[in-house]
Specification:
This protein has 8 helices and 3 strands. The protein is mainly alpha-helical. The protein folds into 2 domains: about 60 residues, Fe,Mn superoxide dismutase (SOD) domain (Helix Hairpins, Orthogonal Bundle), CATH 1.10.287; about 100 residues, Iron/manganese superoxide dismutase, C-terminal domain (minor pseudopilin epsh fold, 3-Layer(bab) Sandwich), CATH 3.55.40.20.
């Protein structure tokens, strides 16, 4: 089964000014697309060709001889999830069950927000900031490179891409400003609530 680059769930200019159409043109149209085409080339004619994306990630994680497959599969998953974690007019505080879970896990939204911004903003080198569920409570983690929570037994709730190509056009080297824009203006709490 060949994977395809999914369309963005909004127009390329819909997240401006927090994220520009130019950023999405490069990030989605070039970076994400390259992961998809490379993954398809790598799995063609292998046992992974008929597996779901999630199964490929779980079945190749931690296997040095399958690292290229893992990296491209995980980056395809991470990016597809990231696009869904944003929406025009997003950001601010969540409501309902998700707000209750955040309060239960972190004390209050402000504590969660600071922890997420610190974890994603200070993550060394390329990677991802995540809000995840371990079943009983929510946690903030970061992962390096293409790593994600799937093979760690954790359920992703939201993610923020902290590779430089995610923010450099709009924010240059000021990753913390990008994290603030993500949390205050972009995050799609409706999608996040569906992940619980």
């Amino acid at each position: 089964m060949a994977f395809e680059l999914p369309p963005l769930p909004y127009a390329k200019d819909a997240l401006a000014p927090a994220m520009s159409a130019e950023t999405l043109e490069y990030h989605h149209g070039k970076h994400h697309n390259k992961y998809v085409t490379t993954l398809n080339d790598l799995i063609k004619g292998t046992e992974y060709e008929s597996q779901s994306l999630e199964d490929i990630i779980r079945n190749t994680a931690g296997k040095p001889d399958k690292k290229k497959i893992f990296n491209n599969a995980a980056q395809h998953f991470n990016h597809d999830f990231f696009w869904k974690c944003m929406k025009p007019g997003g950001g601010g505080k969540p409501t309902g069950e998700l707000a209750r879970k955040i309060d239960e896990s972190f004390g209050d939204y402000e504590t969660f927000r600071k922890q997420f911004a610190d974890e994603a903003g200070t993550h060394f080198a390329s990677g991802w900031g995540w809000l995840v569920s371990d079943g009983s409570k929510l946690k903030v983690i970061s992962t390096h490179d293409a790593e994600n929570p799937l093979h760690m037994g954790l359920r992703p709730v939201i993610t923020c891409d902290v590779w430089e190509h995610a923010y450099y056009i709009d924010y240059r080297n000021e990753r913390p400003k990008f994290i603030d824009a993500f949390l205050d203006n972009l995050v799609n709490w409706d999608f996040a609530a569906q992940q619980l």
